[in-house]
Design brief:
By secondary structure, the protein is an alpha+beta fold. Helices cover 53% and strands 14% of the residues. The longest helix is centred in the N-terminal third of the chain and has 53 residues, at 37-89.
Length: 508
Amino acid sequence: MTTTAAGAAETTDGATTSRATTGRATTADTGRRRVSARVRILLWLLLVMALALAAVAMTTRSLLLRDVDHRVDRLLTQETGEFANFVERGADPRTGRPFTDANRLLTVFLERQYPDADEELIGLVGRVGTGPRQIRQPHDLPVTLPLHKDAGARARVFGSAGSSGVLDRPQGEIRWAKVTVAQPGLGPNAAFVVAFHPEREKDRVNSVFRTLLGISGAALLLTVGIAWAVAGRILKPVRVVRAAAAQLTEQDLTRRIPVHGHDDIAALAETFNGMLDRLERAFAAQREFVDDAGHELRTPITIVRGHLEVMGDDPAEREETVRLVTDELDRMSRIVEDLLLLARAERPDFVSPEPFQVAELTADVYVKARTLGDRDWRLDAVADLEAELDPQRITQAMVQLAQNAVQHTVPGQTIRIGSRTDGPDLELYVADSGPGVQPQDAEVIFERFRRGTARRGARGSGAGLGLSIVKAIAEGHRGRVRLHGTPGGGATFALVLHAPRAPEGDPT
């Protein structure tokens, strides 16, 4: 007993755990489903636009920094070129002769120059390792530590074997270029140095970059707001479709979605409305079918019950009652069989086409129809060709049309059975010489349980399903049933089939 109780407790705990896990999964699924299409669209738009704007800002910053580098390189090249040209062609203004002293050369050249705000022009005179003496203009620079105040940096530039370079210092970067003065007769080693401090230029680039980021952020927020409103407007028909689908019931299929515009959303609304139209017609046809079938089956049931209730002990009366009851039961059986046949007509294997001689099929139908009633049966035109069709179903439809003709004619009247071609179509027809079909009945006689408002002859024992079966067989062959008047009076029913066929006279 203890083990069983523990097992039960364990089972209960397992069920509780399972329910809890299922509940969490359901909650998680519900949470995922709560992310609407509108939000997903906006999130993707936000991501794509953020990446695009960031890429634009970064690219702009890179281009501006490259422009700064190019401008500094041009400035350095220009200044060093001017000094080299001055060394080669310049003359001392005191003597009018070429310079023979490096100090005098550098002093005269620097007196004639106007450097930029972030530029330093310095003359260095001395020897490597002894700390060069500098010659400079009285020019204040908006930097933390200019080159003329940084002895270590000056020594590195003066002692460098290259003609240009970059000094990375904690106090700021320096881009420099120099021209060494080493002509004979100029005395000690000397150099002309151009130093540029790009920090302010880079700060301006970074300021532009930050401005772009701010503008991009504002543009992103504005775009998201506009996109939220536009997405809501575009997806409104989708929400209407969802709401309409949620409110649809079998009793109310009348709701429709208003269609605006000519885009994909409008096409979706039109498609949904068309689906609702088909559903409404299908449900209406189903209800009508159920009502009609119930009515047709209720009549023989009522007759059977009534006769059985009043049946007495007289043998003759009992025999008559049994006969009437049997007739009504046979009628009910035929109705059920016809209903089952119409139900099978919705299946894809309702017809099984095969190559068959139309002339042979027409003759077989004529022979079978002659036994249906005392009429003047005639075999009319016969199409001599082979066609892809289901001979059993076509025979069933043609015999039904012949039976319909018998019911609406009297003995001795003519009924013609035949087949013919009409362009690409094949027609198999039954033509009678009865009273014909009233115009108001032509559209309804092919519906289930409909016999028309004006009968052509005496009421038969059918339930109004015969012509519906004929129509289903024709449509199963991708064809239709055509009704028109017979010359001289009467009605002609024709199966118009789009059946593939061999040319007339084909040996097959």
